[in-house]
From TrEMBL:
Coiled coil: none annotated. Gene3D superfamilies: Carbon-nitrogen hydrolase. Keywords: Hydrolase. GO terms for molecular function: hydrolase activity. PANTHER family: BETA-UREIDOPROPIONASE, NITRILASE C965.09-RELATED. This is Carbon-nitrogen hydrolase. InterPro entries: Aliph_Amidase/BUP, C-N_Hydrolase, C-N_Hydrolase_sf. Residues 6-267 form the CN hydrolase domain. CDD domains: CPA.
Length: 297
């Protein structure tokens, strides 16, 4: 088996306002730093162009969306081309009048879009009113082919669903990616915050284990005040991480600092793990039919 290594990076940053140019340039600086260190593949966090506007339902926030292709894809396509990297971005897509998606866009060493993925699972919780803004994705769970392999790109709330990770793996994804924007409700106790974070960390490491794939998670950091009077806002918990195919944490960022992570993945080892732990061989597909039901009554 020939040796295959891949150097991957991610950017964890805070967002102070809705000035897209400022935020894009901030991301581009970090991308340049990672590329200089040898990163071939870099991911940004969820909705990195603006503040997390889903803390309230506000029709004016739709003005933040843009078409794909559009200004954001022009900017980040140029960045990918300049540094000769594969780049995973996350954008608020205006698909048509009254039709919007939370969309990841991938560039493969050029200005051209290599592929995109529209977030499939859309939350609707206090402070995370995403169903008001985003139509669920209609592109399925299809990996994106790039020069460094097939990328299984999912988005934030998708990270809680083993079905999404499994379907990406079954379609040939070689790495799973989760651009994310998640944090604490400051009204929660310290104990509750820890349980929530530990669950988030564990479920994504479990996707790595169950599918024998590396997992890359880029989460935003920093506090973003709520525009709604009396609401506590969100303290995004950062702690972006990269895990190997047995769920081992290879690198992890802090909770409250802007950081980059850089890891050399041994993709040959990923193949070896799949041979040693042959989950896909032993799946009882003849007995899983009821998984497509909402519930078993």
């Amino acid at each position: 088996m020939s040796e295959r290594k891949l150097t991957v990076g991610l950017v964890q940053q805070s967002v102070a306002d809705n000035n897209k140019t400022t935020n894009w340039n901030k991301s581009a600086e970090k991308i340049a730093e990672l590329a200089e260190q040898g990163a071939e593949l870099i991911m940004l966090q969820e909705l990195h162009s603006t503040l997390y506007f889903c803390q309230q339902e506000d029709t004016d926030a739709f003005d933040l969306a843009e078409p794909i292709p559009g200004p954001a894809t022009e900017f980040f396509g140029a960045v990918a081309e300049k540094h000769n990297i594969v780049l995973v971005t996350s954008l608020f897509e205006k698909r048509g009048s009254g039709l919007y998606h939370n969309t990841a866009v991938v560039f493969d060493r050029s200005r051209e879009i290599a592929g995109k993925y529209r977030k499939m699972h859309i939350p609707d919780d206090p402070g995370f009113y995403e169903k008001f803004y985003f139509t669920p994705g209609d592109m399925g769970f299809e990996p994106i082919q790039t020069s460094v392999g097939k990328l299984g790109v999912l988005v934030c709330w998708d990270q809680w669903y083993p079905e999404a990770a499994r379907l990406m793996a079954m379609a040939g994804a070689e790495i799973l990616f989760y651009p994310t924007a998640i944090g604490w409700d400051l009204n929660d106790s310290e104990g509750e915050r820890k349980r929530q974070h530990d669950a988030w960390h564990t479920i994504q490491r479990a996707h790595a284990v169950a599918n024998s794939l590396p997992v890359i998670v880029a989460n935003r950091t920093g506090f973003e005040a709520s525009p709604v009077a009396g609401d506590s806002g969100i303290q995004f918990w950062g702690q972006s991480f990269i895990a190997g195919p047995q769920g081992e944490v290879l690198a992890q960022a802090s909770a409250d600092q802007e950081e980059t992570l850089l890891v050399e993945l041994d993709m040959t080892r990923t193949e070896q793990i799949k041979r040693i732990w042959p989950y896909f061989r032993d799946r009882r597909i003849d007995a899983y039919g009821e998984l497509v039901k909402r519930w078993r009554d």
